[in-house]
């Protein structure tokens, strides 16, 4: 989705949540609307995977390589952000206490919703939905994402404490995307030795930061179809791993480290999940981080391949 539309939906939702011009019933139901949008989005994403024969084929041919690249990228980001959060000391304690909710109940319920939505979507894509329906799936995905972003904006607007993260961290917010870049590239670097890949090829794939569509196109045009396919599948897998594991990452690594795995997707697709699992204060930080990483993708990928 275009950055302009993302900002429009988020900002409109924020204004409606902040100034509350609508009846109270709307705000009581907004959480359920957002959750419904999440289910539709994950289901349609699973359907796109199931209906695309190229992806299914690639899963068998280069799936292992893509999985390792995605996993190492996530681990690198998590480790550096975990260290960063520990150095924040008092600031991090404030963020950890910024929002109280039943994390254990949220973990189990959200994880079940995530897994079943994606699995059902894949099954429908493999069995019922055909290639003629791809355009329809894209439309459904776009509308579901719009609903989600609008709902996240409403929730942030309703919670006046949502911007505490910015007040607490200040300029340090920019360190978050920087560490994600370093962690992702370090992870890709080590993965290249494990997979016996050319180092700059692995780094270019990692520099997609989860933005599979743009990174795959750039790498295909600059390098080769094969590496472009690896980039596409690697970043799809990174997004899927993030979606499935995010509740557990928040619980065992913390709120700030949970921003790392999603990479560039934390400004759109994975933003609602971060909001639900880590809270509105972290969602604001995640959006800024995702926006910075999205700007860096079309800069870093060609630069790395030119080395």
Keywords:
307 residues, mainly alpha
Structure in words:
- The protein is built from 14 helices and no strands.
- It has one domain (3-306).
- The protein has 307 residues and is mostly helical.
Explain the layout of strands and helices.
Elements: H1 3-19, H2 24-51, H3 53-61, H4 63-88, H5 90-96, H6 103-127, H7 134-158, H8 164-169, H9 175-195, H10 199-206, H11 212-222, H12 225-252, H13 271-278, H14 280-306
Helix pairs in contact: 1-7, 2-6, 2-7, 4-5, 4-9, 4-12, 6-12, 9-10, 9-14, 10-12, 10-14, 11-12, 11-14, 12-13, 13-14
What's this, in brief?
This protein is mainly α. The chain has 14 helices and no strands.
Averaged pLDDT? 81
What is the succession of H and E elements?
HHHHHHHHHHHHHH
Number of strands: 0
**Count of helical stretches:** 14
Computed over alpha carbons, the radius of gyration is 19 Å
Percent in strands: under 5%
- Structural class category: mainly alpha
The span between the termini is 30 Å
Largest sheet entry = none
Globally, the shape reads globular
User: Which spans of ≥5 residues are poorly predicted at pLDDT below 50?
Assistant: 98-107
Estimate nothing, just give the exact number of structural domains. 1
The helix content is over 70%
């Amino acid at each position: 989705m275009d950055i302009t539309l993302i900002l429009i939906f988020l900002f409109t939702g924020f204004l409606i949540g902040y100034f509350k011009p609508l009846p109270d019933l709307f705000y009581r139901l907004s959480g359920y609307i957002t959750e419904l949008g999440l289910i539709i989005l994950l289901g349609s994403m699973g359907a796109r995977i199931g209906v695309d024969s190229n992806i299914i084929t690639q899963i068998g041919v280069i799936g292992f390589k893509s999985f390792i690249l995605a996993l190492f990228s996530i681990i690198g980001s998590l480790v550096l952000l975990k260290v960063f959060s520990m150095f924040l000391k008092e600031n991090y304690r404030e963020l950890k206490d910024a929002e109280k909710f039943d994390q254990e109940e949220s973990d189990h319920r959200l994880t079940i919703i995530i897994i079943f939505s994606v699995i059902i979507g894949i099954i429908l894509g493999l069995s019922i939905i055909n290639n003629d329906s791809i355009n329809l799936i894209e439309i459904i995905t776009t509308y579901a994402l719009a609903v989600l972003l609008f709902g996240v904006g409403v929730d942030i607007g309703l919670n006046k404490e949502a911007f505490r993260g910015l007040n607490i961290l200040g300029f340090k917010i920019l360190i978050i995307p920087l560490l994600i870049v370093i962690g992702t590239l370090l992870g890709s670097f080590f993965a290249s030795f494990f997979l016996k890949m050319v180092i700059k090829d692995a780094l270019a794939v990692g520099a997609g930061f989860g933005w599979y569509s743009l990174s795959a196109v750039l790498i295909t045009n600059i390098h080769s179809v094969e590496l472009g396919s690896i980039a596409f599948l690697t970043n799809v897998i990174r997004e899927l791993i993030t979606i499935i594991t995010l509740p557990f990452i928040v619980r065992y690594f913390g709120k700030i480290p949970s921003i790392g795995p999603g990479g560039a997707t934390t400004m759109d697709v994975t933003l609602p999940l971060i909001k639900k699992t880590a809270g509105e204060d972290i969602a604001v930080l995640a959006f800024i981080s995702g926006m910075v990483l999205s700007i860096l993708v079309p800069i870093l990928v060609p630069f790395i391949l030119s080395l």
